[in-house]
Design a protein that fits this description.
Blueprint (H helix, E strand, L loop, with lengths): L5 E5 L2 H5 L7 E2 H4 L5 E5 L6 E5 L2 E8 L2 E6 L5 E2 L1 E5 L5 E5 L3 E2 H9 L9 E15 L10 H5 L4 E16 L10 E8 L5 E18 L2 E5 L5 H4 L5 H11 L1
Length: 239
C-alpha cells in the first residue's frame, strides 16, 4: 500500500478570523510537512505561498506588490501544506475565466467530500490579487480585510497554488478554493480574487488524510471563546 498523502493544517481559519494572529509555528517546521500550500505570517503580515518547497510572502509595500522569500525561523499563525502529487494533469489550451476553469477542474473530482491540492502553472491575461495587511491582535479579520490592498496584472506568467476544501470542513478552512498566486519573476502575487487564464497546465492532487494541529502552547487560543455563526459569516465576507 502506498503512503497516505496528508494535508497538514496548522490552526483553524476560524481562530484567525477571531483575531488570533500570533505566529506559533516556524516556516522550517511547516515545510517538513509539504511542498505546496498557503497561509499567512505572524500578525497576518501578508499572504504565504508555498511552492516547490520554498516559502514566499506577498505584501503590499509602498503602494505596490512585493514578493519576499521567507526564512525558516519566521512564524505563522495559520497555514496548510501538502506533499503535492498530481493525480490529474491537463492542459488548458484556450482562455477561460476562473469560474469556468474551476468547473472544469471539479469535473475530475471523484466525489465532493475529500480535500484536493491545486497547482496551475501558466499565462494569465488577468490576475487579481489582494494581500492582508499586518494587524494588531484581537482586531477581527473581517475588519482588517476591508482595508486590504488589491492589485491587478495583465499577461503575467506564474503559478497558482492552493487547497480545495469540502463543505463539511468550512470553518476549519474555507469551503471551496483557497488559492494564492506567485509570478515566475517573483514580483507579483497574493491571495487570488479572480483571474483569466490564457493557457497553462493544471494539476489536481489527492489528499488521503487531514493532519490538524493546534497551537497548544498559545494560551490565547486555549481560552478563546468563539461565536461560530459570526465567524462563518466573517469567512464568507473575507474570502
Amino acid at each position: 500500500m502506498s503512503e497516505a498523502i496528508k494535508l497538514f493544517q496548522y490552526n483553524t481559519l476560524s481562530a484567525l478570523m477571531a483575531g488570533l494572529y500570533g505566529g506559533t509555528l516556524t516556516i522550517g517546521e511547516l515545510l517538513e510537512h509539504g511542498d505546496l500550500g498557503i497561509g499567512t505570517l505572524d500578525s497576518i503580515d501578508g499572504e504565504l505561498i508555498i511552492l516547490d518547497g520554498k516559502a514566499y510572502q506577498a505584501i503590499g509595500s509602498n503602494g505596490k506588490p512585493e514578493i519576499v522569500e521567507v526564512s525558516d525561523d519566521v512564524k505563522v499563525p495559520y497555514a496548510a501544506v501538502v506533499p503535492h502529487q498530481a493525480e490529474v494533469i491537463f492542459k488548458q489550451r484556450f482562455e477561460m475565466t476562473d469560474a469556468e476553469l474551476k468547473k472544469r477542474i471539479e469535473s475530475y473530482y471523484d466525489g465532493v467530500n475529500l480535500f484536493r491540492s491545486i497547482k496551475i502553472k501558466g499565462t494569465f491575461s488577468n490576475m487579481h490579487v489582494r494581500m492582508i495587511p499586518k494587524s494588531a491582535p484581537n482586531t477581527k479579520f473581517a475588519e482588517v480585510a476591508t482595508r486590504q490592498p488589491e492589485y491587478t496584472r495583465e499577461d503575467v506568467m506564474g503559478t497558482i497554488v492552493g487547497i480545495w476544501t469540502p463543505k463539511m470542513f468550512h470553518g476549519v478552512s474555507v469551503a471551496g478554493y483557497h488559492l494564492h498566486f506567485i509570478s515566475d519573476d517573483l514580483t507579483f502575487g497574493g491571495h487570488v480574487m479572480d483571474f483569466v487564464i490564457s493557457e497553462g497546465v493544471v494539476e489536481v492532487g489527492p489528499v488521503d488524510q487531514l493532519d490538524q494541529r493546534f497551537p497548544v502552547q498559545d494560551r490565547k487560543y486555549l481560552f478563546a471563546k468563539f461565536n461560530m455563526d459570526e465567524l462563518k459569516e466573517d469567512i464568507k465576507k473575507s474570502e
